[in-house]
Amino acid sequence: MASSSAFEQDRIDRRYIAAALRLSRKHLGLTSTNPAVGTLIVRDDGNGPVIIGRGVTAIGGRPHAEAEALAEAGELARGATAYVTLEPCAHHGRTPPCANALVTAGIVRVVGAAADPDPRVSGKGYAILRSAGIEVKEGVLAREAADQLAGYMNRSMRKRPEVILKLALSADGMIGRRGEGQIGITGEIARRQVHVMRAECDAILIGIGTAISDDPELTVRLPGMRSRSPARIVLDRLARLPATSKLARSASDVPVLVAACSESPAANKAELERAGVKLLATETYGGRVALPELLEDLGNQGMSRIIVEGGADTARAFLDEGMVDRIALFYGPEAIGSDGIAAPIGRDHIPAGFELVREARYGEDSFAEWIREI
Ligand code: AOF
Ligand code: ZN
């Protein structure tokens, strides 16, 4: 029956787009300024679909995913279907257009997830395919693709990186205990998950208060992923970050950027620069680093995804400015009580416009994530 086979085809299409999204995730955080795209070339010779080519946008952004997948498929691509998580490009950039490569390779059907907002590509990639007689189905798992490509979408449409606010909360919604530095709220499995999240970002950002009180390293310390530590950014209007801090001392291994204003003491700045810290000259208002301007600057530097890891004042500043695009909350099992520092946000008061996209458990801890529609 036509309708049941159309239903079956939809199911297969969603399955392969989901697989292409999972595949592309392995390069999330490694392809800026390009998005991490996934492509699968799938062929069905009557015995069911078989994957004959896989591609992910290469580290650094090129070659594009389609080129890699077509190279693996070779001549078998003739007559096959391509599953792409983003509309194939239509422009002659540093690589030839992927839409043309799909046509030349003899692909007969393309299933796409997200549309590309890049004006050089938007609508044009799909149009090239259609005018060559290729059957095109757009928008399969579009929401899942928009979630994963949110960094790229933010840079394209808001001209700044996606800001991910991550907090670890106690069962009663506290993020620490007054007068104490870093305290254990979540367990080891959740902490490892945070390291995966860091690896998928271009930078980790904290406020100077947290930098001084916790002296964190902010690196990815998972086996096999140590080389994936992103840049570390400190909001530090007066350039107070000690040159003896773990951050400053490791600046030659993993970049450290300090957002300081022009009035900050020259001696502090000089000392940080000697340690290899990069200073970002930032505007301030109301005694705070101007976040929209800073984010625009970071976007111009090619950053697509930034994870904000504390403390409470920094989190509140991003929330107050409407500069948070994703909220990721880890909840530990224990309460802290009356000497706790209340989190600026909690699962029961997520701002309007955010949608729950993920819930999970990591050992004894629970996790939930919300994103804001672009
Ligand atoms: C694709 N497949 O894997 C990716 C695409 O600077 P260029 O020439 O590499 O082009 C960058 C643009 O290519 C980028 O803005 C986005 O539109 C697209 N990214 N396209 O067909 C891919 N990463
Ligand atoms: Zn391309």
What portion of residues belong to β-strands?
25-35%
Bin the helical content: 25-40%
Corresponding CATH architecture of the largest domain: 3-Layer(aba) Sandwich
What is the CATH C-level name of the largest domain?
Alpha Beta
Q: Element order, helices and strands?
A: HEEHEHEHEHHEEHEHEHEHEEEHEHEEEE
**Spatial shape:** globular
Low-confidence stretches: none
Give the averaged pLDDT, no decimals. 95
> Which ligands are bound?
ligand AOF, zinc ion
Strand order of the largest sheet: 11-10-9-8-14-6-15-18-17
User: What is the total tally of β strands?
Assistant: 18
Fourth-tier CATH superfamily name of the largest domain: Dihydrofolate Reductase, subunit A
**SS-based structural class?**
alpha/beta
GO molecular function, one term: zinc ion binding
Protein name: Riboflavin biosynthesis protein RibD
InterPro entries: APOBEC/CMP_deaminase_Zn-bd, CMP_dCMP_dom, Cytidine_deaminase-like, DHFR-like_dom_sf, Eubact_RibD, RibDG_C, Riboflavin_Biosynth_HTPR
Cofactor: Zn(2+)
